Amino acid sequence: MDPEPFEVGHVVREAINILSSSRNGVQISEALGTIKCYLGGTENQAPLKEREEFTRVHFSAFLRGLVSNLSPDWIELLTSDQQKELWDSFFLEGPADQVFLVLLDSIISMGPSFCLMKVISILEQFLQTGGMSALMWEVCHQQAQAGLPTFQETLLNKVVCLPDHLCNKLQGNNLPIFFPQNYFPLLATEIIQVLQRISDSLRDGLDCSISFVSQVLGKVCMHGRREEILKVLVPRLMDLTKVDCIWQRICWRLVECVPDRWIEAVVCGFVQKAPGADVLSRLLGNLVVKNKKAQFVVTQKLLLQQYSYATAVLQNLLGYLALDSLRRYLLIKVLKELLETWGSSSAVKHSPVEQQLYVSKAILICLSHLKEPEIESNGQELLTSMMGGMKCHLDSNLPRVRRLGMIVAESISSRITTDGPCLKFQVRLHRNDSPSATPTAVSKPSGNPHPAAPAVPEEGSDLELDSDDDLIPYDMSEDKELKKMKVPVYIRDCIEVLTGSEDMDKWEATMKVLESLIRRNSATTREVSMELAKVLLHLEEKTYIEGFVELRKRALVAVTITDAVVQYLTSQFYSLNYSLCQRMDILDVLALAAQELSQPQASGKNKPRSTQSPCIQTVPGSDSSQNWRRIVDERIKSKTRRLAKGQSLVEPACGPNKFSSLAGHFFFPLIQNFDRPLVTFDLLGDDHLVLGRLAHTLAILMYFAIHTVAAAAMGKSLLEFVWALRFHTDSYVRQGLLSAVSSILLSVPSERLLEDMTDEFLETQSWLADVAEKDPDGDCRRLAWQNLLLMENLLKKLRSVPS
After folding, report:
1. What distances in angstroms separate CA 78 from CA 13, 23, 30, 88, 304, one per listed residue?
2. What is the pLDDT of residues 408-448, one digit of tens each?
3. Out of 18, 86, 387, 786, which could bridge 32 as a Cys pair, Cβ 3.0 to 4.6 Å?
4. Residues 38-94 pLDDT 10s
5. Residue 201 burial (10 A CB sphere; 0-12, 13-18, 19+)
6. Paired strand residues for 427
7. Residue 698: in which H helix or E strand, if any?
8. Short-list 521, 523, 608, CA closest to 557
9. How far apart are CA 383 and CA 200, in angstroms?
């Protein structure tokens, strides 16, 4: 007869008592051998019913007794072979789930001792001999038979957090196998082993649950270790799913059974690790159709709520949606939502440029996957979205945003226009002029019906040539060169040509020599300076001249520094009947004139500004933060003492700072009326581009006012200006305000800054810290950090000065 159940428990308790009290090696080995019979695999193994009762009821208690009574006194009574057969085997051959929990709980509860090191050694062997795959396989069987959910949840937490437990316990004495970079790749290999056994079971017609493996994968990824586990798991799954449909089904179930709270981490990991859309489709199947959370992650979170992934990830993601007919409706849905975001004026204004670039890339990739029937059925909606989004982008103050708008609009137009003209932007670039984009209709080429992402053509490329290029050139070999135009030599003659002449050649020649005439004839210039400044300010380009805007601007700068017409220019900035471009030209001229006046001249005559001095960029298309950082770096470099060997450095030119007496005349008229709207001009309203340019110009004027009498008063007024506009919604304006703070910190004497503007200084410091952490624009954050460092250096300098 089979023994009663209580007899197995009695044998276990007797064995534990022997281990705790006996110091007889034979008695200990006999007690362990008796219990070993209940594990099976021996000649004298116990009956099946007793073995099942032992593993189900008594095994964990026996292991805990075995560990708690472990001591070097009796373990040394066993030979090395006996230790492996009668002690190690219980941990390496018994039920892996129970073994793992007992070992880990014992390690956590023990102090430094011989017993602790022995248990750690056993856990290391457990991992090295496939213990984790055995553990997961056993749990998969328990789940198929409705196992205990509480036990499985505990086991899941221990499996995923093993490196954390061991690191906290062992600290500097931790073993390499327990390091996260080693443990999680090992766990991935063990997962593949479990999946292989599941595959074999399915081929034999047996049911098996994969849920626990999915939970392990999901929790590991959620804990921030998806890189370590997926770098091993994904390549193996790629190979196994190439030709085997059962493995494909297993892989699909693996991700489908991941709990919703962890599905995002798993999907993101697979999308990043897959080398292509076809591989991703093979690994995920139709997960986005079956799982709403996965669909939300793929169509919303990865595309609209972040922008950190590379273009290859976007191609994988959108290509995955396009590869299966059941998923293509999501591709159309995603494209419409991307266009809605792209065309939102609020998103264009408040989201970082990097995010807008990310959305634009996604739109172009979606367009490349559209089929003709899809274009025909959604063409009108796409066209409407394109028109609204194009306007929002072209209204932006940031050149990168405007260019993105042009590229995306051209791409949409080329894809949805099957016949007739499509949208094409004619972009004209001058060296120091802002790009002016005008949408025009051009004939659509027939050779490329499906452009994925049309690029802006390079200057001089064949794409810029129009249809007239097909005409046969006229033979001009017999023509004679016309006599060169006589250029004016007097400034008054230049004024007459610019205001009344219809001779375009003479008009062009006048523009090219005007600056040099002004600088050579300073006395004559002073007589007609006001008249000349008015002519130049209102001058329009009658015929195309390369660099016309630059020529006009340089001539105005020459007039301004020869006979300071600053009062006229500053008064005209807030006058009626001026275009925005003219107002911005005034700001550019004042900034350039201030720079030239502030530079010492080696001789008594006015000369063009040195090419080695910091260059003020006045183009809206330039990156103001980078230019300002370069100027600040120049100032920092000039204040840094360096010991050099070899050839002596050339002494810089010395001379009076002509800007010193004029700084207030440049600065205060510009800053005093910014909050007073005019009929055609409202800085605090729609004209925020000019407001941004004003902020940058004031920052430049403040920068060149260093060591001037008016510097402190200018700094205080500029700080009030910054404080009033600090929450402006336009990033270009905020960049100008942050540049203004930089110039204040560099130009206002530190003593005056902290004595006369203490409260303003502290409030600005708090605001800068907030901008550095939360501003959506990357340039604003960088400028804020730069200003915080300048403030910190300023305070350190003052603390080092003895009182």
Report:
1. 21, 11, 11, 12, 65
2. 999 998 888 877 788 888 654 533 334 344 444 443 433 33
3. 86
4. 776 666 677 777 777 777 777 888 888 888 777 766 676 777 777 777 777 888 888
5. middle
6. 437
7. helix 688-704
8. 608
9. 54
Q: How confident is the model at residue 654 (pLDDT cuts 50, 70, 90)?
A: low
**What is the crossing angle of helices 372-394 and 328-342, to 10°?**
20
Output the CA–CA distances (angstroms, integers) from residue 617 to 82, 297, 436, 636, 737, in the order listed: 83, 43, 17, 19, 16
Q: DSSP character for 468?
A: G
Provide the pLDDT confidence category of residue 630 given band limits of 50, 70 and 90.
low
H or E element: which one contains 180? Answer: helix 180-203
Helices assigned H by DSSP within 343-398: 345-350, 353-369, 372-394
Burial (CB count <10 Å: 0-12, 13-18, 19+), residue 34: middle
Query: Which residues touch 428 (CB under 8 Å, ≥6 apart)?
Result: 435, 436
Give how far the C-alpha of residue 249 lies from the chain's centroid of Cα atoms, to the nearest Å. 36
Residue keyed to tokens 């004939």? 443
Q: What is the dihedral of CA 287, 291, 294, 296, to 10 degrees?
A: 130
Q: Is pLDDT of 152 > 50?
A: yes
| Closest alpha carbon to 309 in 259, 270, 280 | 270
Lowest-confidence range among 3-12, 344-353, 554-563, 784-793?
Answer: 3-12
Amino acid at 31: A
Determine phi and psi for 424, rounding to 5 degrees: -145, 130
| Tokens matching residue 521 | 């004839």
The neighbour count for residue 406, using CB atoms within 10 Å, is 21
Query: Exposed/middle/buried for 628, CB within 10 Å: 0-12, 13-18, 19+?
Result: buried
Can you tell me which residue has the tokens 């939102």?
344
Q: Are 124 and 177 in contact (CB under 8 A)?
A: yes
Q: How far is CA 104 from CA 183, 212, 542, 724, in A?
A: 15, 19, 86, 61
- Give every CB contact of residue 606 below 8 A, 6+ residues apart in sequence: 519, 522, 558, 561, 562, 596
C-beta of residue 409 within 8 angstroms of C-beta of residue 390 = yes
User: Coil, helix or strand for 424?
Assistant: strand
Bridge partners, residue 437, by sequence: 427
> Average of pLDDT values for 314-338?
94
The size of the chain, in residues, is 803
* Residues 535, 377: Cα–Cα separation, whole Å: 56
Q: How far apart are CA 430 and CA 432, in angstroms?
A: 6
- DSSP single-letter state for residue 325: T
- pTM score: 0.71
**Residue 726: both structure tokens together:** 């600090």
Distance CA 348, CA 693 (A): 19
Under a CB-based contact definition with an 8 Å cutoff, are residues 514 and 521 in contact? no
Residue 766: other Cβ atoms inside 10 A: 9
- For residue 753, give every residue at least 6 positions away whose Cβ sits within 8 Å of its Cβ, in sequence order, or none: 712, 715, 744, 745, 761, 794
CB 583 within 8 A of CB 560: no
725 touches 770 (CB < 8 A): no
Lowest-pLDDT range of 52-56, 230-234, 563-567 = 52-56
**Could you tell me if 86 and 32 are in contact, meaning their C-beta atoms sit under 8 angstroms apart?**
yes
Distances (CA, A) of 476 to 49, 473, 479, 481, 526: 110, 9, 5, 11, 47
- Residue 745 pairs in a beta bridge with none
Measure Cα distances from 291 to 252, 253, 287, 651, 667 in Å: 12, 12, 6, 73, 62
What's the start-to-end Cα distance of the chain, in Å?
100
**Tokens 């995923």 identify what position?**
160
Residue 340, phi then psi, degrees to nearest 5: -65, -45
d(CA 255, CA 215): 9
List, in order, residues 6 or more apart from 664 with CB less than 8 Å away. Answer: 710, 713, 714
